[in-house]
Amino acid sequence: MNNKATIFAFVSGRVQGVFFRMFTLREAQALGLKGRVRNLPDGRVEVHAEGERDKLEKLVEKLRQGPPGAVVENVQVDWDEYQHEYDDFQIDYR
Length: 94
Known about the structure:
Layout: E1 4-14, H1 20-30, E2 34-39, E3 45-52, H2 53-65, E4 71-81, E5 89-91
Parallel strand pairs: 2-5
Antiparallel strand pairs: 1-3, 1-4, 2-3
């Protein structure tokens, strides 16, 4: 049984300018997840991560907390099948 999955998470609140992307990068790398995190023009942070489902669930818990200084109002998470799109986890500065 394949327990790998992909998530698309959109985090809203005071999540830009508070080191949220670096926080997400460190948490994802510590969990062995792959993917990207980036700021969106509308003030949200988008996280695209893939890996083992239980580790993704732990990442979502961390996203709901955020780093010191962040005020997370909402985390919308969409689950999908594992895609194997990434070889590492990085901040996307686009």
